[in-house]
Amino acid sequence: MTQTSPETQKERSFPHPEFTDSEAGALTFPSSTSRSYNYYKPAKARATTYEDVTFDVQPDPERHLSQGWIYGFANSPGGYPQDWTRLQSSDWHQFRDPNEEWEKTIYRNNAAIVRQISLSLENAKRAKAYSHWNPAWTKFIQRNLGAWMHAENGLGMHVFTAAQRSAPTNMINNAMAVNAAHKLRFAQDLALFNLDLAESEIDFDGKVHRDVWQNDPVWQGVRENTERLTAIGDWAEALFATNIVFESLVGVLFRSDLLMQVSARNGDYITPTIVGAGENDYSRDLGYSRALFSMLTRDEKHGEANKAVLGEWLATWVPQSLRAAHELQPIWSQPNEKVVTFADSLAAAKDSFRTVLSDLDLEIPKELDQ
User: Is the full-model pTM beyond 0.85?
Assistant: First the structure.
């Protein structure tokens, strides 16, 4: 065999990679080195983390998708049609959640509440606090707070979880999804409280709440109101009828204007801790709801039409919620220590409701004066 010398060996040829800049990537512009997003206008001078991680996560042909929606549903327009509600906006993307809820805040806030409630329940069991309750108060809690658990769970699962998918921007959907999480967590808080009481040394029937919710005449107005809310097809109507009307006239009436007022006088310091967490949730949820509907009633192009639609919804849902509230009246006489009357509690709920409607530039329904 003959061998070729290194001098005569033929050199192999390999293709050499050639790196080219894409047209967009090669450009230099004022914010080329910025680590912040600048494809939207922040609400204030500087964008917040909430805006950076939430704004435009859901694409929209109104802003970025020049080819239209890239997905759709059978027998339905693609994406997130704006006609899924009767309300209209010149720019749905103007909405910002005043709570600035995003993933980190959701876990942080709910973890803090869970720790607070867990400590309260542990301390109550250690101190045998339930043994100091009088029988009338024990019966009141097992029947009425247990029944309210069903309302919270129904609203979280079948109103907010369902409706949050239909809003036209991720900013609105995100706020409504957090609202659903609040309701479901609060319902679970009440369920765990009910379980603790059933396992305690006192005579407490942990199953009676189901019969109360399904059959007690006092609760059938609330039950009907809640179930009707779950059947609303218009996502904005579901949000308005629940957070603005039902919660103001029924939810706050029961939680804040009754339970938070009379629990301590009946030797119960645990219930206000748990119910207070639910009230704090609602305060935050009412905040984003007011921000959204204020934006819609003050829209330069559609404001007056939106007010007319909201007026129709008030005419439908205010009588329903007032009837539910009035049917609850008998439970105000059940505790031994009656700190407030039903009339005073309802008056306080109505006053708060009037304030909310005034902030939204809506006319006060005549039913509130009856």
Answer: yes
